[in-house]
Amino acid sequence: MDNKIKVKVPNQGQLEIEVLDIFNVADYEGKDYILYTLGEEVDSDHEKAYVSILKGDNNNYSLLEITDPKEWEQVQLAINEELSLEGDENE
Predict the structure, then answer these.
(1) Which of 3, 7, 32, 58 is the most exposed place for a label (fewest CB within 10 A)?
(2) Is residue 86 within 8 Å of 31, Cβ to Cβ?
(3) pLDDT, tens digit, for every residue of 76-90?
């Protein structure tokens, strides 16, 4: 996948990230969440992935930290559900 965008990150300036998925979460309508990587290898087959709230307009994007524990729990459930669905499609 080569779906890269540039985002503004607090205290870090601008970064180029590779988008893995953009998704929404029940009970948090109006927010877009982004699953992305910076290309950091965990091992030869895997890269480290991150999740943030994606804010954007007119190709100006920024990443916001998920600070609410309840929101983070819902985001994790959404990611696990998505991964489960992808696993079912590959079988």
Answers:
(1) 58
(2) no
(3) 999 988 878 766 665
